[in-house]
Design brief:
It is built from eight helices and ten strands. The longest helix has 26 residues. It has two domains: about 60 residues; about 180 residues, 2-Layer Sandwich (Endonuclease, Chain A), CATH 3.30.870. It has a ten-stranded mixed β-sheet with strand order 1-7-6-5-2-3-4-8-9-10, sandwiched between helices. α3 runs parallel beside α4.
Length: about 260
Amino acid sequence: MVNRYALRALRLVSITLLSVSVMMCMSTSGNDQQDLQLQEAVFNVPPSFGRTHFIVGFPQDRTVTPDHTQPPSGGVYQVLFSPDDDVQRALLNFIANEQTHIQAAIFMLTDQEIADALLAAAARGVIVEIVTDQGCVQERCGKMGCLHKGNIPVYVYQPTSTGRWNDLMHHKFVIFGKTTGGKSLVWTGSFNWTRSARKHNQEHVVVLDDTQAIEKFTQQFAVLKQRSVRAKVTSRVSNATIVSKRAHEHRELHTT
């Protein structure tokens, strides 16, 4: 019994040879109308076949030059990859152009330039809110203390479980109320606000201007705030001490 895969291969070869024969006839006939009629009669395929479709055995130009800086269509405003694109510069531009509010859920913030940009936004009247993980406020190089000193509300996520493998607030997204071009945007991806993410790591960011996506992220930010406690700063030590309080809880978390 002939193997069914062998039959498929033979059928593909036959179609390929027939395709070549037809294309040769079309190239020498000089009559476009007859070419189209011949193509449709033999293959029962649309007239664009052979011009926009791949023909087996014909060389194809597969050179692709990605452009990550131009806004694609369909609710996606921008796609960026680090370190190939200047992801941080794009983020700083969105922060600098924001007119109303910034809501950021960020796992790690150690980059002083981003912290300074958020402080500058708050100073000009933009409402800035941050939700972060406990690991960020415990991080030696974390910048949450700087944001506190600038009166930016920081909410520290409270894990539902305790112990070595507690759950994390691992998001990296930002909701911009009215930024570049007067748009409401969502910034999301793998990009932490750290020097490693900016200089070394393979990271990605997708910026969305889709209304439903923005609404969904806004709702989730509110949920994250409910799962967190607002922190405050004391000045008892030279490095900022972030104190998270609940009615029944007092916990100190250290950061620089």
